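Could you help me review a protein record that somebody else here produced? This is what I was given.
***
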Amino acid sequence: MSVNVTWHGHANFQIESQGVNILIDPFFTGNPRAGLAWDQAPRPDVVLVTHLHGDHAGDAVDLCRKYGAKLGTVVGAGEKLMEAGVPQAQIIGGGGFNIGGTVEHGGVKFTMTEAFHTSESGAPVGFIITLQDGFTIYHAGDTGIFRNMKTWGELYSIDLALLPCGGFYTMDARQAALAAAYLKAAVAVPMHWGTFPVLIQDPKAFAAEVAASAPDCSPLLMRPGETASFDR
């Protein structure tokens, strides 16, 4: 089995596994790193939103309305996105679920984690995604480092961690590398860099920091539009 992960820039990732397509933080419109428009991306079955900042909620409403995709987000954010036009029947839980909760769709399990950041409504969150064959992906959302990442690394065997490293709004490279160590991630991809001038523009520091802090983790530096495949 193969898991395909495409980075559309910023925190916008698309995951395809066994016929299920998952889109996380679908920021296309206004994203200088995205190489395509929101309606040119492969059709999602599930759209996940980590928090209600425009560079993360992005085109979620349009995507869900056009394709009938399920929306996974935290209570509070779900209500706001419903007011913006997402039908309630498409929102997992009818208005969202919450930190520590796990839901399932298409054989994929979605566990919501805490994140330390801000949001227009509801709490900022991350997601642990357990695919049909057990391959596990952690998308941290926008966050600073926190020691409870160790707990997630104990509870889950994390094959791939998607970690912000841009600094200013989130963790920097050094913190993100320590997060990879806490999580005991097999592979770590840096995100949330290069989009805006205040963010770091080169992720090479992340790779160097991972080598120092998490030697058992392999850093993977992706470019916007690139797809990485993981075979099981």
